[in-house]
Amino acid sequence: MLTKTDFLLYLDAPMHLWAKAHEALEARTLTPYQQHLIQQGQQVETLARQYLEKIVFSEYARAQFLWQPTYNDGRYEARVDALIFDQEADAYDLYEIKSSTSVHTDHELDVTFQVLLLEDRLNLRHIHLLHIDKTYNHREALDLKGFFTVEEISEQVDQRREAVTKWRQEAALVMQMEEPAPGFACTKPRSCPCLALCHPDLPDRPIYEIPYIGKKAVTLREQGITAIQDIPEDFNLSEKQQKHLQAVKTQQPVIDHEAIHQSLERLHFPLYFLDYETFNPAVPLYPGYHPYQHIVFQYSLFVLATPNSDPQHYDFLFTENSDPATRLVPHLVDHLGPTGSVLVWNQSFEAQRNKELADHLPEYAERLLGINDRLYDLMLVFKEGHYVHRDFHGSASLKAVLPVLCPDLGYDKLEISDGEQAMLTWYMIQQGNFTSDEITGIEQALRDYCRQDTFGVVAIWEYLCQL
Known about the structure:
Blueprint: E1 2-3, H1 4-12, H2 14-21, H3 32-56, E2 63-67, E3 70-72, E4 76-79, E5 82-86, E6 91-97, H4 105-118, E7 124-132, H5 144-147, E8 148-152, H6 154-176, H7 195-198, H8 216-222, H9 239-250, E9 254-255, H10 257-264, E10 271-279, E11 295-304, E12 312-317, H11 325-335, E13 342-344, H12 347-360, H13 365-372, E14 375-377, H14 380-383, E15 387-388, H15 398-405, H16 419-430, H17 436-466
Parallel strand pairs: 1-4, 6-7, 10-13, 13-14
Antiparallel strand pairs: 2-5, 3-4, 5-6, 7-8, 9-15, 10-11, 11-12
Helix pairs in contact: 1-2, 1-6, 2-6, 4-6, 12-13, 15-17, 16-17
């Protein structure tokens, strides 16, 4: 039988479903962060059941609550999150639980698959999606009624019926095929669960490293082209994509010196190089936060007063079990002056954190929003294609750029070497998973990591200046 999980796997890529049906999915170990996301989803599911039983179910005069029942018709199978049977109306109301803060297309497809199966055996009345309310403002204790919201999506399901009916039939046929079709393959080898099937003999410079290649990758693959260097010169690529093609073919970086010069000319001393570390739980940890709002628990700041001065470093890390913002923000504004450019990597992230901190601590709003007016995103030099190197592998992330331009500034010798590890380590401290003696060393590891990220931006800026 085709399960709901199988159907969603088919929508991801038909090859992934075929691989599952033929026991060809590759075994993968979940990262600690992936495990955290699963546990967080389970936490939300537990709270959602309490919400349904205590709040929603109480609104029915005479009813029966069904938790995660499984149904099948011999062809399709689905486990439903929750059903409430209204005995007075002789009708069922379906409640699908999601840990997101809004209704997404894949949610509608997921629920439609269930409805097509259930409506032949149950009198379905209302179709609901239960999700987190993004406007929820946490207080000392969790308010279940405010934390969740219920949306009627019966109309959306009706609009998806025809497509889901077609796709589930196609998916069932894919499971029965003895051999997969080449067109079944996905276009995301980095996350592919069956790399040997979707991307056999993947070259060192695959076409998927061209930024935003999208459906063009399918066209190239149909022509037998999987390596960037084999892409014809007349193939329809954007100007930025052409630069990545050129960098691979010539084995030389593509540098627009004038564009970089004009960009750096916008900077004004003193220069501040800023980086935040955050954690964004579904269920807020402290009063005044919204679901999934980032808690800024650490910052690192390098200050360069003049072009010839040595950078001065300041940082702050808060690991006590209370809101870090009340201590971190005053410390930050004491060291980040009122004038001068503030360099970051991925401006939208720091800008949004400053805006949230301004809402959280109104007395510092003017200073925090003033920082946003001075932000300069060094990542854009690479994202906009002013500097393209084949060893960036199509990425403009700091972890991709820094080792290429500044090979001595690697992360391999650090105890904490990436952002996911940093945020989970901080969260584990909050959960009491370490002794006080252990925390001292862990705090230093967190400081070392955040410092490395920030100094990396300093080093890349210096490198670009020398061009």
